[in-house]
Design brief:
By secondary structure, the chain is of the alpha+beta class. The chain is built from 7 helices and 6 strands. The chain has 2 domains: 2-92, no CATH class; 113-208. 44% of the residues lie in helices and 11% in strands. The strands form 2 sheets. The chain has a 4-stranded antiparallel beta sheet. A two-stranded antiparallel ribbon has the order 5-6. It binds zinc ion (2 copies).
Amino acid sequence: MQFEDRTERCLRLAKEEHYCPHCKQKLSCCEAPPFHIGDGLGWGTDVLFICLNDECSLFAGSWEQFDAQYGHSASCRYVLCPGNTEGESMMVGGKDAFKNSELNIEDLQRQNQRYAKEKVATAQLDTCIAEGNLEPVLYLLLDEHADLAIRKRACELMLELKNPACVDPLRNHTFRNTDLEQLVNLAIIELLKAVHQRECPYCAEIIKAQAKLCKHCGKEL
Ligand SMILES: [Zn+2]
Ligand SMILES: [Zn+2]
């Protein structure tokens, strides 16, 4: 839930347009640093609008001031918190600070789409047995970003569906969670047993449980 809220919020903010009062350039939408140097607390927001223009008068002109005042190399960037009309100066140690924290709209959109698909597939699990629909089950099992509890439920349903079409894609998939991988491996063996099939120990193709010779590799079993 939190994931969806954050992604949608970031997407909305990344589309807003704000301009630097010092250089008139468009502010970049960046991920907020965990601490606010001024008060040691957080910024109270996960996103900040920052002027990343190296020619900006605030940024270019503050080096000397910091050097004279504190004797170390630092400068300021103009920063605006979402929802505020006036920004402030944020101290930075170098010109690359925050240049890697710009929000990537395409990434966010991809995350959002993936999450929407996960939601649809999860809802379809309720009717997949009645409809004999393997698709949502397979989709969730193969989506490494999907919720683990939901993927475990999909694994149980996969066994109930008894459709050997799921075996190849699952065998070709690399599971990051070893718990789930084990559950899937056991479910595949159970599923094949239920439909009187098994995997050839030599070539891994699916064959009849009673076969004496593998019809794929010809090996004796
Ligand atoms: Zn500026
Ligand atoms: Zn074989």
